[in-house]
What does this fold into?
Amino acid sequence: MEDCIFCRIAQRTIPARIVFEDETVVAFEDLNPQASVHLLVIPRKHLGSLKDAAPEDEALVGHLFTVSARLARERQIDSKGYRAVINTGEWGGQTVFHLHVHLMGGRIFHWPPG
Ligand code: 5GP
Ligand code: ZN
It folds into this structure.
């Protein structure tokens, strides 16, 4: 996906503060952080949103969350707690259409999120 901003970040053809990468996922700092820790964890494979996750993507989607949990431990936001969310589609607040987990911590989050 040449015109997908997150594919380009994963391919390192546009810059981002990448904090973790392995064969299947990449994590980087959000450009417009909404908390002191705000990372985005994405699959290298282009999936437009969670709606596009197929049964074959089950391990990949799980990996996004286990990597998120590992990064939360590394950033020391796990003891107080944090939020790991996937905004999905227009009404879900999604603005970049490449699947991503927001890992946010360092402040209190409320529920429902509004
Ligand atoms: P969404 O609204 O789709 O759930 O989240 C998209 C996120 O991507 C937003 O938090 C936004 O700040 C972030 N974002 C958008 N463009 C860029 C970019 O070019 N680089 C980085 N690092 N983050 C971006
Ligand atoms: Zn993409």
Summary: The radius of gyration is 14 Å. The helical segments are 5-10, 58-74. The pocket of zinc ion (ligand 2) is lined by residues 1, 4, 6-7, 46, 98 (CB under 6 Å). The first strand starts at residue 18 and ends at 21.
